Amino acid sequence: MALLKTIDVVKTYITGPHKVEVLKGINLEINAKELMAITGKSGSGKTTLMNILGCLDTPTSGKYLIDGIDVSNMYADQLAHIRNKKIGFIFQRFNLLQDMTALENVTLAQLYAKVPEREANKRSAQLLEMVGLGHRLKHFPTEMSGGEQQRVAVARALANNPSIILADEPTGNLDSATGEKILSLFKDLNKQKGATIIIITHDQHVAEETDRIVRLKDGKIIEDTRV
Whole-prediction pTM value? Predict the structure, then answer.
């Protein structure tokens, strides 16, 4: 059984008198422990698909299943619970809280999940050590490079042991050398931790570093290949 499955997913937005169909019948199966990329030009629908896969949005029609459970019509609080338990997000602009240290940024996600603070701090330190930032626990985002901030974001995404990691243009704001390090980190997480990692990117080089590429155009899947 697929870990994630979309069935004829359509997403339509209403803007004034206009109706814009962004996704046009997406059928996609993603198995556990895959390292894959969803790619396409701007406006292809990849971010909208990511939002649905990450339970940040719901389809206008069609179904979306996680572990065989249809989450298409769940309420916002139910979707929030799934996100907290199953999904880790890594954003292009890092989305770190500027007035919190690296340790505090990673710990916060666990506190929301009702993890005791002492336990959360210990795990956060271990995660930051794992991504090579054991010496930066008490540093604020403004005191770190872009690559270091992205590593904090990776540690935060792993805080609650998610089975699924969604990374939206994770190397977009990084120089090529730092971007390669982040991609290498994703590969290690995929192989050593068995995490299912889905990278949303317009960068063909980044996509080719994964094991599978799903290409979108005008809201439809036009290619699904193993690398």
Answer: 0.90
